[in-house]
Amino acid sequence: MLKIFLIISLIIVLSGCAERAIDITDHEGKVVGGCNAGYDWHLYGLQDSIDYMLYVCAKDSIAKGYKISDERLLSIDFTLPEPPEGKAWNKKIAMAEFHDGRITEQKLGYILAAIEYEYQKVVWTAEDDLAEGKITKAEFKKLELKARHMWLGE
Asked: Fewer CB atoms near the end CB (10 Å): N or C, the chain?
């Protein structure tokens, strides 16, 4: 019985975790860069979130004429749906919209990736500012808490 429980637990844990990478190549086919995207504990729209982040990472390179190893990403419409009137997307709102059938799992994946990315941008910048002495630890905590609220909707 314990063995079955452990196997089921492992399957559940692994089902919410994934990572994928793409190469960026020049016009001669030489690899000049790459993008990596992955998530842990992401149960809905996991592959869609990864696709979204890989595209976000590569879009500047694509605009400069470089190619990507997963050209399927070029045919996907990554447009985010409008959030409910008067609100901004956060995880809580996105999950409610998904569970109420107003957005697809694919769009949920894009939204979750986009809002987590915005959170990370704020936190990474704040971490750099803290390390460089531009802000205090208290200011960092305030910025991180505000970004977390915007991400999760807490």
From this structure: N
Please tell me the distance from the alpha carbon of residue 102 to that of residue 83, in angstroms, as a whole number: 10
- Find the distance separating the first CA and the last CA of the chain, reported in whole Å: 38
The residue behind tokens 């504990």 is 41
Give 25-62 pLDDT, tens digit per residue: 999 999 999 999 888 767 889 999 999 999 999 999 99
The whole-angstrom separation of Cα 139 and Cα 145 is 10
Q: Which two tokens stand for residue 45?
A: 């729209």
| Residues whose CB falls within 8 Å of the CB of residue 43, separated by 6 or more in sequence, listed in order | 15, 16
Token pair recorded at residue 27: 């016009």
Place of tokens 């063995």: 3
pTM of the prediction? 0.83
User: What does R_g of the chain's alpha carbons equal in angstroms?
Assistant: 18
